[in-house]
Amino acid sequence: MSALPATGRLLVATPQIEEGVFRRSVVLVLHHGDDGAQGVVLNRPIEAGIDSVLPGWESVASSPATMFQGGPVQLDSALGLVAVPGDSPAPTGVRRLFGAVALVDLDSTPADVATEVSGLRIFAGYAGWSEGQLDTEIATGSWYVVDAEPGDAFSGDPGGLWHRVLRRQAPPLRWVAWFPADPELN
């Protein structure tokens, strides 16, 4: 297994990633083990109504109530992430991953789940890494691995998440939050 397990933590893209879905992204790692890693990009809302894809779920979703691009893998599939408060068992149709974070079965009835969760986000696709791939990307400086805070996965301002996560880190990592979008224009 990786020397730096990342399950339940955030991957924050370094300025080394200059383009694509991972540019200035914040990824919540859902699994990181010997077999690879999976996660979802938390700060890529897309202009797609949830109800047009999954009727009934939009009214349960955290603001902004839109779909998010979870990553470049299987964009034709949907993954529901929820927050289950407290230490109580997860409700029917919900599987706790770590802490308050859980996956919801999107074939469940939204009204049955809504009263049991405190946040919901729907992702089109996910981010995935083969065995050892994420470890290599971390070692070569593509990602900062930092602790997640409870509200990160359901932030009402996903566009500002990259900056906020970096600003709450200790120096010198904190200073990366002010790295210009285009260093050549600096």
From TrEMBL:
Domain of life: Bacteria
InterPro entries associated with the record: AlgH-like
Cellular component GO terms, alphabetical: cytosol
Family to which the UniProt record says this protein belongs: Belongs to the UPF0301 (AlgH) family.
UniProt-recorded name of the protein: UPF0301 protein KC207_06480
Taxonomic classification: Bacteria, Bacillati, Actinomycetota, Actinomycetes, Micrococcales
Organism: Phycicoccus avicenniae
PANTHER family found in the cross-reference section: UNCHARACTERIZED PROTEIN YQGE (PTHR30327), UPF0301 PROTEIN YQGE (PTHR30327:SF1)
